[in-house]
Amino acid sequence: MGQQVAGANRRWRCQFRYRGSRHESAVTQLSTLAVHWNLMTTNKPYGGSFLLEKTKLDRLVEIIHARLEDHPHTTSHDHFEVFLSDKRCIEKHSVDDVLKLDNSRKSKIQRLLMTCCTSTEKAGRPEHEIQVDFDGRIDDKVRAKVIVSVRSDEAGWNDRALSEVEEQIERTSLQDLRARLGLAALAVSAAIAFLLLLLSSLSSGRPAIDAAGAMWLRTSDLGRVEQILKQGRTITDEEMREINTMQLRNVLEEQRPKPVFIGWTWQKSFVGGPLLIVSACAFYLLVACYPNAVFLWGDEVERYNKMLQTRQMVRNLIVGGIFFGVLSKVLYAGLFSKP
Questions:
Q1: Based on the domain organization, do 197 and 225 belong to the same domain?
Q2: CA 59/CA 296 separation, integer angstroms
Q3: What's this model's pTM, rounded to 2 decimal places?
């Protein structure tokens, strides 16, 4: 479990309601232990995207209450802070009140900080506390994360409570890192392949002048010259003029500005089009269809279901694009390749 070290005062959300910074990022290690009013505090962060819905939230609160009930003759207190996208913070005292929030597009839930604690009647402070922070906000340095804090004067209880809460936190993980990495690799690979295809078109505007270039004859011109010489006689003035015409035409073509995409062919279109579609779809999936944090109640349920439908549709486009690109490449090579 956590490593025990001394630490400074931290937030208490129950009786005293001391408020630290709403944007603090002091928990940067895997697990730390502090002392607050002679209580040991274990903090453990969990990175990665998460999905929190009613049944998982109810079960998490149930587990927390069960662990707090290990201490008899105490009074429990629940406190929930909901941070919205319109910069508001709403405070509730029950899970049901939190789940009744609209969670609309304009007031979308971005963070849920829940604190459950117990204390005896004579105590002037919480004696045992479990705090879970579902933080879906993203900045330049920190991705979505969940932080669990357990405070008590019993180290063994801290470890047991953290272990059971951790099991419920893992159930909220979306486990989509592999899918994200795969999409990123696919998007970048398709984009690079398409750029290489464009560059090959830019560098192949006309057939290059090869070893016959010393006489300004292209490879395509050599066939006619070979046909004349095979007759085994001296070339006529008319044939010489024909060869000179080829040479002059080649000189002029080399000096004129070359069209940018003259090397682009139908075959490259059949391959480049699907590559562009696959790359665009993969980037769109990464940006729009893999959320970092989902609080699945209120209006978010309908939005999330639509997002899943869009994700499946875009995936089908990617599969179709890859299949069409491969099939068109094979068919073009079979129908138009020279014997």
A1: no
A2: 15
A3: 0.71
